[in-house]
Design brief:
Layout: H1 7-19, H2 22-29, H3 33-47, E1 52-53, E2 60-61, H4 63-90, E3 97-102, H5 107-120, E4 126-131, H6 134-141, E5 147-150, E6 161-174, H7 189-192, E7 197-200, E8 219-222, H8 225-233, E9 239-242, H9 243-252, E10 256-257, E11 268-276, H10 284-316
Parallel strand pairs: 3-4, 3-5, 7-8
Antiparallel strand pairs: 1-2, 5-11, 6-9, 6-10, 6-11
Length: about 325
């Protein structure tokens, strides 16, 4: 009667295989050898299959036993996972953590945090979304994401609670071949209006009719940052980019910093914060995620500070 198979029988079967004999399995399980032999024999009777060939000095798995061993391991592991997940739930750990990340935020930091998260919370699925502008706020506002790693927008969101994480430099750049990069002296703001500015478009309606850091009436709106990056390098317009994405371009000379009046060459400092709804504060996994983002990002800020210092020096020379 296969319905009567017990976990003890399956664990004993697995132990006999792993230890190499019934006597060794009995020692591992702190059972009498006769009990181990009896459980395995009863298991074979219940499933109607011989798991071991007992003709030699030591029992050897039959071909059928080899196949069923994998099933036994999966069943025992599945029960272990069930117990662990239940303990996690009773301890208050989220059953799932959904986070929306602003497109400007360093992917390397999020990747490192996600890798650690998998080890720290192996039973909590992590759902990550990358968006920009209002489309990054929308999942937090409507409850689809419990956390958002986001910059400020032209309009406030008083219904959300925030925790400051740090600042990200946003640099005005263009291709070295672009007229603005070839301009002699500091660039008057009026000069910017003569050239196409590349800006991100909001895939939500939250910032409809509002612009953020737009200096030119001639704008091309792009849906993703990687396309904007490619266009800038190809000389199609000018625009702002997060420093961490263009450090190599600046060092290799494929992008140039624009020295614009009233626009610091070291970049506008864009404050990044963790946002959530007041009624849905982060649980243990969410708090850990925010703390690790802050810690790892502060560790990488040294690079950004050095690059910013270099930008200031180059603007004076």
């Amino acid at each position: 009667m296969i319905e009567g198979v017990s976990l003890d029988q399956l664990r004993t079967f697995i132990a006999a295989v792993d230890e190499g004999s019934f006597s060794a399995a009995a020692r591992k399980l702190n059972r009498a050898q006769s009990a181990v032999s009896g459980w395995i024999g009863a298991l074979e009777d219940q499933i109607g299959v011989a798991l071991f060939d007992r003709s030699g000095r030591y029992p050897a798995l039959t071909p059928q036993g080899v196949l069923l061993l994998a099933d036994a391991r999966n069943i025992v592991a599945g029960v272990g996972t069930l117990k662990a997940r239940a303990r996690s739930m009773t301890s208050g750990v989220e059953t799932e953590l959904s986070v929306v990340i602003d497109v400007f935020f360093p992917t390397s930091v999020i990747s490192a945090v996600a890798k650690e998260f998998a080890n720290q919370f192996p039973l909590t699925p992590l759902r990550l979304f990358v968006e920009g502008l209002g489309a990054a706020y929308q999942p937090v506002l409507d409850g689809r994401c419990s956390l958002g790693i986001l910059p400020p927008l032209p309009q406030p969101f008083p219904s959300l609670v925030s925790e400051r994480l740090g600042e990200l430099p946003l640099i005005a750049v263009a291709s070295p071949r672009h007229p603005l990069a070839l301009f002699q002296g500091r660039i008057p703001r009026q000069e910017l209006t003569k050239h196409i500015q590349l800006v991100l478009t909001d895939r939500s309606d939250l910032t409809s009719g509002r612009d953020f850091a737009v200096a030119s009436p001639a704008t091309w709106r792009l849906a993703d940052l990687s396309t904007k990056h490619a266009f800038l390098k190809d000389g199609v317009g000018w625009g702002g980019m997060p420093l961490h994405m263009i450090e190599r371009d600046l060092s290799e000379g494929t992008l140039s910093v624009l020295d614009v009046d009233d626009m610091p060459p070291s970049g506008y400092m864009l404050t990044m914060s963790a946002f959530h709804q007041p009624a849905q504060p982060p649980g243990p996994a969410g708090k850990w995620f925010v703390d690790r983002v802050k810690a790892l990002w502060h560790g990488t800020d040294i690079i950004g500070s050095e690059m910013s210092a270099g930008l200031k020096q180059s603007s004076r020379s």
